[in-house]
Specification:
Helices cover about 40% and strands about 10% of the residues. The chain has 13 helices and 8 strands. β2, α4 and β3 form a beta-alpha-beta unit. α4 runs parallel beside α5.
Length: about 350
């Protein structure tokens, strides 16, 4: 093993070596290096983003997602504007600096409707507003930015074009290249977030290494990665895509996710990296804590009203699906303190460091 832990020298081969690494001592070095860089570049604060899942309606048929349009086993919903604003107000009362409005790709969330909600939240709460509404048109993205949205999250899921095409059935002319959209978002002045899935059937170590490098090349402000979690009402959950041979198929495991978080901290030292809900779903006792100790600095507690939360089932068994937001806030504060960290204040945007002279 010759792979190093220096950003400048971490190439695709070196990243693949680290992704395959299973020696506990070597992995301890990886976690420690990532944690040191996290402390040096973004500090000890853990920023909390209040997540509001505003609609589970979706026109896409992505093969990994439980709210895909062809899943007729779930009850669909779309929150009212008042419900969304009230959820944001709850996030404000709980001390969160950001609210994240997430949905399936729902045309019913129209340009003027979203713009009005963003304006109301920004005006009534002062929170930073993050949108995660899928592949939207340039005029919509521009209108929402002008309305006061600060950030936009759009995961590219995989940088392998063949694998992406396999798990994202085409929608004809409505399909847009996600990397082009990420560039548009940057040009519009958004803080831009993206990321990828870990362990998709057909994902190789070489492919995953390229995902990591793509995040560095995109200079992302926030990077969210998580394990692929099987949903039985999806083509991937029904085994319609065969995994690769065991020695090349990336596992959708906690260990692999933590490796990716740590390597991303090394590659992108001042980006915001969340300890994702998917990881907490894999390990409800320590998943988030392990990610925070491996380079993460953001957690996204759910403030979606309880009557909707279980219906946003992108995968089954989602962590904290039945917890009241107030209980979750108290729990997270205690967990964060136990790993020697503090709860961040304010919007917690990316603090870019100037390049060395």
């Amino acid at each position: 093993m010759t792979a190093t832990l220096d950003c400048a020298s971490l190439d695709a081969a070196g990243l693949s070596d680290w992704l395959r690494e299973d020696d506990p001592e070597r992995l301890h070095q990886l976690w420690a290096r990532a944690d040191q860089l996290r402390r040096d570049h973004v500090g000890d604060a853990v920023h909390l983003r209040g997540l509001v899942e505003i609609s589970n309606r979706c026109v896409r048929a992505c093969w990994y997602c439980g709210i895909r349009k062809d899943n007729h086993h779930i009850q669909r919903y779309r929150m009212t504007a008042t419900e969304v604003v009230e959820a944001a107000a709850l996030a404000k009362r709980l001390g969160y600096g950001t609210v994240v409005l997430q949905a399936g790709e729902d045309p019913g969330l129209s340009q003027p409707w979203v713009a009005d909600v963003v304006q109301r939240i920004a005006g009534e709460t002062g929170l930073a507003v993050t949108l995660s509404l899928g592949e939207r048109k340039p005029r919509e993205l521009q209108a929402w930015r002008q309305a006061g949205a600060d950030r936009y999250l759009l995961r590219f899921e995989t940088s392998d074009p063949a694998l992406f095409a396999k798990i994202h059935p085409a929608l004809g002319h409505s399909d847009r290249d996600r990397f082009a959209i990420l560039a548009e978002l940057h040009d519009l002045g958004y803080e831009v977030g993206s990321g990828f899935l870990i362990g998709i059937p057909g994902q190789s170590y070489a492919s995953l290494a390229q995902d990591l490098l793509r995040c560095r090349d995109l200079d992302l402000d926030m990077i969210g990665v998580g394990p692929w979690l099987t949903h039985p009402d999806t083509p991937l959950g029904q085994g319609l895509v065969a995994p690769l041979a065991a020695d090349d198929q990336v596992p959708a495991s906690e260990a692999m996710t933590l490796k990716c978080v740590a390597l991303l901290r090394i590659l992108c030292p001042d980006s915001n990296l969340p300890a994702t809900t998917a990881l907490a779903t894999l390990n409800g006792h320590q998943g988030r804590e392990h990610a925070l100790q491996a380079g993460a600095n953001v957690v996204m507690p759910n403030v979606t009203p309880l009557q909707y939360r279980a219906l946003y089932e992108i995968y089954p068994g989602k962590a904290c699906v039945s917890e009241h937001a107030e209980v979750c806030a108290e729990c997270l504060a205690g967990r964060i303190a136990k790993v020697g960290r503090t709860v961040g204040r304010g919007p917690g945007g990316r603090a870019r460091r100037p390049p060395p002279a």
